[in-house]
Amino acid sequence: MKPNKAFHGSVATLVMFYLFVPLIATFLYSIATDWYRTILPEGYTLAWYQELFTDPRFLQALQRTLVVCLIAIFISVGVMVPTIFIVTVYFSKWDRVLQGLVMLPYAIPGVVAAVGLIKLYSSGPIVLSGSIWLLVGAYFVIVLPYMYQGIRNSMRTIDAIRLVEAAELLGASRMQAFWKVIFPNILTGIIVSTLLSFSTLFGEFVLANLLVGGHYETMQIYLIRRMEESGHLTSAIVVTYFILLFVLSGVVMRLGKSSKEGSR
Amino acid sequence: MKSRKRHLWLLFSLLPFALLVICFQILPLFTMVAESFRGDGGVGWGLDQYTKALTSKYYLIGLKNSLVISLCSSAVGIVVALFAAYSITRFSRRVRDFLLMLSNMTSNFSGVPLAFAYIIILGSNGLFTLLFKQLGWTTLASIDLFSWFGLVCVYVYFQVPLAILLLYPTYYGISEQWRESAALLGASTAQFWRFIGLPVILPGVVGTFSILFANAMGAYATAYALVGSNYNLIAIRIGALVAGDVAARPELAGALAVLLAITMVGAMLINEWMMRRVRRELG
């Protein structure tokens, strides 16, 4: 048993080391003064972060990313929560159709989706090419699977159909049944879906670059343009981005755990 | 009468969803497929674009490069994950959760930031490149990140955590009693894995492999961030044809995109099929 344990321990350590080397290197680079002659940096500084957070171009890019992501997620929550609720409770026969529709984006990579979007909206009745609304629409589609799974699962956990039946038997209207009974119970699911969607969209590059890249510099586009100019600054962006992701996924895990424990 | 009216009202509330999905998912896909059957500049109909895509040496090489890089990176990823995921199942619950959290975290690390991190460690002045030089390991020091091999290295990185997360649950299909019974009947560890362990997890492995394959086939950002449009991969070619520096050719892009989508949907279907088998065995 003993040597076995040592074996598994070293396998896990080795793989985790492999996975964290790029992150650690990026972090070191972001606080290094000069680092191209020696194995470890020659000195350490926080100047890159200071430069980054006072760079108006960075702040604008961050703002643009937030604007597009938040609009898309806001629309998505507003549309998907009632849709999933209505289909689950009143049209359960259609659930498979809905599932098929919302899972499709998993099989369609960004480049493929971009081809049709660009062609469809560059001419014809509605011209959206280069506008952020095209990106918002595309982002709405990307986050469909995350929204569906999170919200659908929490409706299943609380047995939404029976809860609505019970509420209606007790004299509640449909609206009351939804707002007073269902909504508070699926709120955690909605928040988890929202955060997952946000972290996906925040790191999205392909569609942003292909659909609006020239006109609208988001974080990821800013990142790739800055890569050639200053490596230290770029690594400061990557580290900032990763800390944000880390915090988001931590919150998601917490919420996921507490909602599971609550339902038991 | 009243209930029918309420029914209509409910259907009406599904309209925003239907509209958005039609406008940004169904219609674009439909346009893409339709466009792929048109001639250059949208004139006439036919299979021209497909003949072009499948006979032009350039695009065939792109397709081949994508297939090879996806197969290689998925194979390496799955072998690493086979060991790593199994080792993870052997720890206590706390350690297990912690390791899974770390894999989950790093699985978000892909695309442009990942390409950049690899430039820091393996680029021409990279951390490891310098280290290898000082140690005198010239072969390792001369790894060219912007070459084919370099690209495989970066792809493997984003495959490993995903493979661990997907493979990990399948190991729970092997119950501890089977191991004990096999050991009692005189089977060695190798024999146990050859005749019992591997056959049980095989559908899960194949399913995971197909997801990894699809993941690599559709990847665009990582390669684009490393070498721009220079590398001949199918995803990069599609991007260049719709929004590149040269004149856009949406029809040819459509045909290539349809071919890529078919391979991806095929991989997803294999995964579905395998997962159904896994569930049947577990259930």
TrEMBL record, chain A:
Membrane disposition: Multi-pass membrane protein
Alphabetical list of PROSITE patterns matching this protein: ABC_TM1
InterPro entries attached to this UniProt entry: MetI-like (IPR000515), MetI-like_sf (IPR035906)
Entry's transmembrane regions: 12-32, 65-91, 103-121, 127-148, 182-212, 232-255
UniProt xrefs under SUPFAM superfamilies: MetI-like
Localization per record: Cell inner membrane; Cell membrane
Keyword terms, alphabetized: Cell inner membrane, Cell membrane, Membrane, Transmembrane, Transmembrane helix, Transport
Gene3D superfamilies cross-referenced by the UniProt entry: MetI-like (1.10.3720.10)
Family (UniProt): Belongs to the binding-protein-dependent transport system permease family.
Annotated protein name in UniProt: ABC transporter permease
Species name: Brevibacillus choshinensis
Higher taxonomy: Bacteria, Bacillati, Bacillota, Bacilli, Bacillales
